[in-house]
Amino acid sequence: MSKKGLRGLATGLFIATSVLGYMYFFQTTQAETDKKEETMPEIQLSSEEMMAILEEQGFIILEEQQYNSLLEKTATEEEVERIEATVTIEQGMSSTDVALALEEAEIISDHHEFITFVEEQNASSQIRRGEYLLHNEMSFEEIIEIIT
To answer: What is the pLDDT of residues 16-29, one digit of tens each?
Structure first.
């Protein structure tokens, strides 16, 4: 290829690149033009109309006071299912064994706390053997009163 042919090829590539670059950066496409011309119609809905539409779609509408009171109730109330169990205390069981049996029956949540409470009340030697019907809503005092 001669020098003139190479220069002609380079000039052609330069011009083609310039034209394509100009078209890419400075010309808007038809879609962009259509977007600019197309505007969304402004719809005015009243509060009642908006609530009706939302309720039709399955949403529940609450006033702010109702919402806040529901939040407070769920924060303060822990819904705990009442669990009743028969706990058997046998001859020779220590207060630790009793606490573990109560925890296993889901009457208490932490056997360490129960053991500490029993020791504070000096009730570990007063625990009697037998079968006791207890539930998880009982306080430590109520449990001790029943099993001693």
So the answer is: 999 988 888 877 66
Closest CA to 103 of 83, 127, 78: 83
Reported as a single tens digit per residue, the pLDDT across 105-146 is: 999 989 999 999 999 988 888 889 999 999 988 899 999 999
* pTM of model > 0.70: no
- Phi/psi for 88 (5° steps) reads -100, 125
Beta bridge partners of 130: 89
First-to-last alpha carbon distance for the chain, in angstroms, is: 112
- Please, which residues have CB within 8 angstroms of residue 98's CB and are 6 or more apart in sequence? 87, 89, 118, 127, 147
DSSP lists the bridge partners of residue 88 as 131
For residue 94 the two structure tokens come to: 């220590």
CA distance 80 to 77: 9
